């Protein structure tokens, strides 16, 4: 039994519009392709942004929605109540490194882009660069990134972010949250399988395999 298909490498980045059919499932597939092998290191999501600006609230909205789901398999930082933003970013990154042993960090943030890109969600390798759209010099965050294009760039970026429609931001946050939740279920099931492969006939392993096949389809092969 192996898990090779679940974590097959895909291109460095992938973009999907939040209104596309199966957007959350497709997002989950590409997110899983970026993650380290199950059980190898802690996976930490860092959601960057603030609830003081509608457009910049994408990250903390996702963090809050995920916190309510209590996934367990992933660690999350950045919510509406306790945001990670420009003022405390360095402090929060230091805390993450202190609390977790060699974590794999996914940085998530809202961004501005072309008109035709508004509503697109990107997931890929490499860090997110918070503040780049509004000319702030902040440290890059993450081994991988999630970004959501919430509005148009090029003119009065602070004003544009503050006047972004909450409906768009909330809709994108829900799709990303659903995608991370789907990925968490598959990731936790694969972790369970990996931990119990030494007992291939155990009742626990058989249950995990049945659950995994239902979730992965062909991701796990005997």
Automatic annotation (TrEMBL):
The keyword Hydrolase applies. Coiled coil: none annotated. Keywords: Hydrolase, Protease. Pfam families: DUF1256. One of its GO terms (molecular function) is peptidase activity. InterPro entries: Pept_HybD-like_dom_sf (IPR023430), YyaC (IPR009665). GO terms for biological process: proteolysis. This is Spore protease YyaC.
